Amino acid sequence: MRRIVIVCIALVCCGLAYWLISPLFIQRELTEDTTLTAEQQAGVAEAIEAFQGEEGSKEDATVAESTEMLKKEMENMEDVVVVESMLEVRNDIEESVKKVEEAPVQKDVTAADTETAEEAQVIASGEITSIAHDGTGKVKIISFGEGKDTILSLVDLAVSNGPDLRVLLSKNTQIKSAQDLGEYIEIDKLKGNVGTQHYIVPDTVNPAEYKSVIIYCKPFRVVFNVAELSA
User: Fold this and answer.
1) CA distance linking residue 76 with residue 62, whole number of Å
2) What residues form DSSP beta bridges with 153?
3) DSSP characters for 142-160?
4) pTM reported for the whole predicted model
5) CA 90 to chain CA centroid, nearest Å
6) How many CA atoms lie within 13 A of 58 on its CB side?
7) Kind and range of the H or E element at 12?
8) pLDDT per residue as tens digits for the range 117-156
9) 57-77 pLDDT, tens per residue?
10) Residue 40 — very low, low, confident or very high, per pLDDT cuts 50/70/90?
11) What is the strand order of the sheet 184-189 is part of?
């Protein structure tokens, strides 16, 4: 009988604990983040697109270099005609793919929008990695120029839900636990565990000094996810 009473009390305590903690759990998919102004949103979008374009250009340059080396190696061989034909077919396929890609949505922009977008650029980026819990996504630090806002963007974020998750910036790398955080600042509460979201970095913070972005469970001091930044 005593054992049954103890079990019942334990179940009640567990239920009460869950009832108290569950409101802290972040289980939210963001479909729209209204933190930024229209000008900032345009700047962030163009900065990320430009950054991805630079990454793509590097890949294209590597492919072009490899192709040129292949042609030089085979220029004295009879198979060079076959190689060129294959390259032409590949180029035709790439052009066909580009034609069927969805065209980007166009919108009317003002002179202020254009000026802000031109100033915005990605100054650091990283990939979300899993530590205590699974997570994926990209991190972009976007500067709008000297004396203007710096934005921390979590792009295509998908992480586990948890109680009172926070977004941190740390000066350390190779962070696996709370003991590894070193010198850090808290940017804000995580807005949602799924979806692209943006945070304004305080003016007093120099982003160049920080090496990692952390998704951190504050009540239990658990590092959920980390993205190490590189310029």
Assistant:
1) 23
2) 140, 198
3) EE--TTS-EEEEEEEEEE-
4) 0.65
5) 32
6) 5
7) helix 2-21
8) 668 899 999 999 999 999 999 999 999 988 889 999 999 9
9) 666 666 667 667 656 665 655
10) confident
11) 129-130, 222-228, 212-217, 165-170, 184-189
Instruction: Give the three-class secondary structure for 27.
Output: coil
What lies within 8 Å, CB to CB, of 212 at 6+ separation is 126, 169, 170, 171, 172, 173, 175, 226, 227, 228, 229
**DSSP assignment letter at 29:** B
Coil, helix or strand at residue 82:
helix
Interacting residues of 215 by C-beta distance below 8 A, sequence separation 6+: 128, 135, 159, 165, 166, 167, 168, 190, 223, 224, 225, 226
Question: DSSP label at 103?
Answer: P
Tokens matching residue 153: 């963007």
Residue 136 CA, distance from chain mean position:
8
